[in-house]
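Re: the request from the purification team.
They wanted to know what the chain is likely to look like in 3D before they choose a buffer screen. I agreed to run a prediction and write the result into the notebook, where they can find it.
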Amino acid sequence: MKDENKYKTKKEIVKEFDNIFNAYKYYLYNEYKITGTFNYKNILITSILNRSLALIEAYKRLLPSNNIMVLNSLIRLQLDNCIFVYAMHMLVDAGYNIDDLGENIIHKNRKLSSYKIGKQKMTDFYLISKIDEKYGNKIKEMYNFYCRFVHFSDSALISSSQLVGNNGLSIGITKDYTRFKKHIIVNANSFVNLCKFLLILIRKEWKDIPNGKNLV
């Protein structure tokens, strides 16, 4: 992503998280101009932004711990928000109704992967590939990397082992994550950039979705 490692300290990163919150709020009330109107488009976009802000708040609180295992999981969840926004755009563009989508997703817990455009299932991998085709920004590369920290994989070895001396390796359980400190700033910059990218997706892909009917 652009400006991959723009922020050099944790203090700068936390400040930027506050700026992102203000950017989300400005978008919702000044650009999108959400009102008291209750429709599925409004409900879904507000839910996505709130979910993103919850992830940001969790990241802020965990940042001092250097617990990169959990921080990586939060990045993967933020990628999921990006996937959802782009999927809604694709489905509506293909002829699906926003009211039907909202009702099925919210009330019936229908998964994106159960939808198809033509014969193509809306799997995470397919959707992230489509985002990558359009926007680049190493999105597919990020997705493949951070999935390793949600599903049990080689990342489990990273969390339970550390180098000792030049050739040694120790294995054990610990609550000390200082060994990840050297990676934290790069990790946090990735998360900051992804949070900003989510807003780019919303601005470009959400605006053309019709409002649908009012629910109340």
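For the purification team: The first strand starts at residue 116 and ends at 117.
Please add any questions underneath this entry.
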